Amino acid sequence: MLSRRAFMQQAAAGATAALAAAATRNSVRAEAQRPNIVWIYSDDHAQKAVSAYGGPLSTIAPTPNIDRIAQNGVIFRNSFVTNSLCGPCRAVILTGLHSHLNGFRQNGDRFDGSQQTFPKLLQQAGYQTAVYGKWHLETDPTGFDAWEILPGQGCYYNPDFQSAQGTKREPGYVTDIITDKALDWMQNRRDPRKPFMVMIQHKAPHREWEPGPDHLNDFNDVEFPEPPTLFDDYAGRGTAAREQDMSIEKTMRITSDLKVWGDEIPKEDMGSWKRTCGRMTGEQRAAWDAAYARRIGEYETGNLQGEALVRWKYQQYMKDYLRCVRSVDDNVGRVLDYLEKTGLDKNTVVFYSSDQSFYLGEHGWFDKRFIYEESFRTPLVAQWPGVIQPGSSAGSLVQNLDMAGTFLAIAGVPVPETMQGLSLVPLMKGEQPADWRTSLYYQYFEGEGKVHNVYKHYGVRTDRYKLAHFHTLGEWEFYDLEKDPQEMQNQYANPDYADQVAALKTELARLREQYRVPEEETAK
Predict the structure, then answer these.
(1) Same structural domain for residues 387 and 289?
(2) How confident is the model over 283-292, as a mean pLDDT?
(3) Which residues have a Cβ under 8 Å from the Cβ of 247 and sit 6 or more positions away?
(4) Do 90 and 37 share a domain, yes or no?
(5) What is the pLDDT of residues 457-482, one digit of tens each?
(6) What is the Cα–Cα distance from 55 to 327, expressed in whole angstroms?
(7) In sequence order, what E strands does 135-209 have?
(8) Are residues 262 and 407 in the same domain?
(9) Range of the domain at 247
(10) Domain end (from 261, 295, 313)
(11) CA atoms of 409 and 426, how far apart (whole Å)
(12) Which residues contact 213 (CB under 8 A, 6 or more apart)?
């Protein structure tokens, strides 16, 4: 029989253990209640090719699953980038810093993985982190508990994936495989007692726009509306628009871009052929050849020249590009379905965006890089049950610069003062901060003589006006976006806009000081 003293000691010990167990349960419960974050990121997905944004493509090539996010949450109507290029956009997302500060100015640079990033801060705060798919930053990911990435641009069919364990080729179509890996991690490989953040980063719909087996024959009989600027002569702009090398007419290749492969593969296209048909299984190749036989026949018998050839190329380009988008949208649906089936959707914030937008024939172009609207904008939609009012729309100026701080704010993690963006959480809640930004800073670093020959430039955009300085050319461009939304006429020298030009030059100088842009970054 226990003495009273022993009994009291044992009771006290039991009470302490019970309190500790309760504290542990409360801690686990608190951890589990912190929102999960799913970031779905595509490559070169034009804002106008997301049907939630409206426009002529919304009925021809809808994106119902991406639209589900907008319907369940918020669509950002004025979402932009800081530097319209794949690698730099990814570095901005990770760091919340402009390119000149995170060190990744152009493709081919090497990302400094030792610097502060939002995944590292989430890890330190108890989040599990993972990234699957396109990385494109030249160095291995840091700040992630799990990662499998495509080498460089990656391949659409039977792609290679790099991980800490090495490189492995995976059978199938890249958009499906990336989603498979992310879903497997969410379902089987993470700790369900902890909150998580996963980045699902697709290669599609990046050039060379290779559709997946489920969509090879989509849009076969569709005639896409031509943009009114398809045959732009650039008379209203300067040297940069005239001397670019990204036109459907001159730059887009019949072979590697439009898949009109003959018996002889041109030497300059051999690398592309190896990445495409050269990686396919016999079954994949048979389906591919059957799908493209019609196009090859049209080209070989059509004797297309001049504007007729441009129009034909545009139609084939749109078919392939939007077929790739179809696979992205399918896989967004797979992620949403998984979250809903498991109940994770109730405490998970889901974003969909693209590293930048893309030209779909506007100004006769494909690709991106310019500060002009079609490449400067990017799609951004988000859902957060219980926080975002379904069907919301936000019109404030937002940028990919804002995402790092937004992720941290969602997780309840302090946002470092060094990050240069703004948290989007107030906008997601339907609030409108009185001090929200009224202008955006943009800078493209790669320059003339590089891919697509787009001259270096920097500039500022407000809700109505845009001023750009092509500093190696010594040329300025100014546009009134209300009167000239397609940016066809440079009004820089128009005396009617002298006050607005002067005001934007002052604002541009202020932004460069705010974002700590060194003078040498904008010198000739």
Answers:
(1) no
(2) 96
(3) 364, 365, 366
(4) yes
(5) 999 999 999 999 999 999 999 999 99
(6) 21
(7) 146-150, 160-163, 166-169, 196-201
(8) no
(9) 239-313
(10) 313
(11) 10
(12) 173, 284, 287
